[in-house]
Task: structure prediction
Amino acid sequence: MGMKELTKAEEQIMQILWQLEKGFVKDVIDELPEPKPAYNTVSTIIRILETKGFVDHEAFGKSHQYYPLVSKEQYKSFATEKLLTNYFSNSVEKMFSFFVKKEKIDLHEADEILKLIKNLKNKKP
Result:
């Protein structure tokens, strides 16, 4: 079964679970910005994430401590591939050009990217 895309709310909860590594619903709520959502809202989103295969839980009586099954790195890879395929015709060049035009890349980052490219070129036989 392939990975599913997260909604904005699900992604916000996952970001917190990745940061906490494991936590109860209350722990997740504590990390959310004001105004805090209702306990039931967060609990429902976490159960949806569990259904989607992103999190699992350990039961402590009636309480559940949740933890990620999908790493942030795994989801980042999935989301980047989806972005690249759906919006940039699978072209890293087109994606890079888009970010440059939107002024999302500063000189320092451009320098770092050029270093990465140079290292890649040096590794090729």
Observations:
- The mean pLDDT is 90.
- The first strand starts at residue 55 and ends at 60.
- Helices lie at 8-20, 25-31, 39-51, 72-87, 92-101, 107-123.
